[in-house]
Amino acid sequence: MIFFAIWLALIGYAVFLAPGGDSDPILTQIFSGQLGGIDPLVLAVFNSLGLFPAVFLTLLLLNDRQRWPAWPAAIASFVIGAFALLPYFAFGAKPPQKKLRTPKWLVRFLSSRIWLGALIVLWASNLLTLLQGFSLAAYREAFFASSLVSVMSVDWFVLWGLSVYTVYRFYPDAHNKALAWIPILGPVLVLFGNRQLLQPDENRENAQ
């Protein structure tokens, strides 16, 4: 029930504890397109919340054998992040385990060098945002002034932990799985270096 407890805590934080007033300066700047006034670290974290779901989409659909289909949670995570994934891990990712639901053509695509390489390129592109220069003090100020930044920061750490857990759960025999601790990039590198595990045969399906 740990995932359910984290989900409740995340909701409680977002609703009752997250700092920030009625007006959210960062959200206003994003919607108005005034990105130049936002600290690059805030932007990088914000953008990474679109990359984490792409990683989870890959991990979950390549291993979609659980009680609940993975795709609704994976798709919803592009909008609400860990708020969508935690209920799946709490209740849906349980036995009885089934035959892989994901179509073979999608498995081939998600495990392809093209897709995994694209995720690496997107991660690197987002990292380049930080070359503009960033300030931890500015991020701290944004954290306490903007509920968006506050919630997305906590969400980021939850997604990071979930991504590490997912790699270790689904690929216990993977080489160099400690790379999963590198946020966003790590799970992709584990998949890239263990592509033989991404094309499940009948024996692996029964073993999962």
Secondary-structure blueprint:
Layout: H1 2-17, H2 25-32, H3 40-61, H4 71-80, H5 82-92, H6 104-110, H7 113-128, H8 136-145, H9 147-170, H10 185-193, H11 202-207
Helix pairs in contact: 1-5, 1-9, 3-4, 3-7, 3-9, 4-5, 7-10, 8-9
How does this model look, in words?
This protein has 208 residues and is an all-alpha fold. The protein has one domain (2-207). 67% of the residues lie in helices and 0% in strands. The chain has helices at 2-17, 25-32, 40-61, 71-80, 82-92, 104-110, 113-128, 136-145, 147-170, 185-193, 202-207. Helix 1 (2-17) runs antiparallel to helix 5. The longest helix is centred in the C-terminal third of the chain and has 24 residues, at 147-170. It is globular and about 50 Å long. The model is unreliable at 202-208 (pLDDT under 50). The chain crosses the membrane at residues 41-62, 74-93, 113-131, 143-168, 180-198. Keywords: Membrane, Transmembrane, Transmembrane helix.
* Low-pLDDT ranges: 202-208
Shape: globular
The chain-level structural class is mainly alpha
How much of the sequence lies in strands comes to: under 5%
SS field, number of helical segments: 11
Order of helix and strand elements from N to C terminus: HHHHHHHHHHH
Task: Return the average pLDDT rounded to an integer.
Answer: 91
Radius of gyration: 18 Å
- Which bin fits the share of residues in helices? 55-70%
- Major sheet characteristics: none
Number of domains: 1
CA distance, first residue to last residue:
21 Å
Task: State the total count of DSSP E strands.
Answer: 0
